[in-house]
Write a structure and sequence with these properties.
The protein is of the alpha+beta class. The protein has one domain: Winged helix-like DNA-binding domain superfamily/Winged helix DNA-binding domain (Arc Repressor Mutant, subunit A), CATH 1.10.10.10. The chain contains 5 helices and 3 strands; from the N terminus they run H-E-H-H-E-E-H-H. It has a 3-stranded antiparallel β-sheet with strand order 1-3-2. The chain is elongated. The two termini are about 35 Å apart.
């Protein structure tokens, strides 16, 4: 399934913050985790992720430190900050409202109009 780029963009920040809430990760591991969480339907690229990571770091939601990979190469590890946890909690509340509104719309759309009005 192809996910519309507007949905990908809207969900990117809470996804990254939520993933990093579980612990520090490098960029490739974040991309892999998004794919796992979406059952392979969301395939992020470096070109999409790294500008987001840099922006989240700039606004204080993430911090980064250089680490060493299992292969012995240097790579940047990202972790969530307290400000990032607060932003995640706020986004969680927003997404809960949106998801509930959509659930209600889709539930209503599945019922025939006559049944809703009691005309059955």
């Amino acid at each position: 399934m192809r996910i519309d780029k507007d949905l990908v963009a809207a969900s990117a920040t809470p996804l990254v913050l939520g993933i990093l809430e579980s612990g520090e990760l490098h960029g490739y591991a974040i991309i892999k985790r998004v794919s796992e969480l979406s059952g392979g339907d969301m395939q992020w690229t470096d070109g999409m992720l790294y500008p987001l990571l840099h922006r989240l770091e700039r606004v204080g939601y993430l911090r980064s430190d250089w680490g060493i990979s299992e292969a012995g190469r240097r790579r940047k590890q990202y972790s969530i900050t307290e400000a990032g946890r607060e932003a995640l909690a706020e986004r969680h509340g927003q997404w809960t409202v949106v998801a509930e509104a959509l659930r209600q719309v889709w539930h209503t759309a599945q019922r025939p109009p006559a049944a809703e009005a009691g005309w059955a």
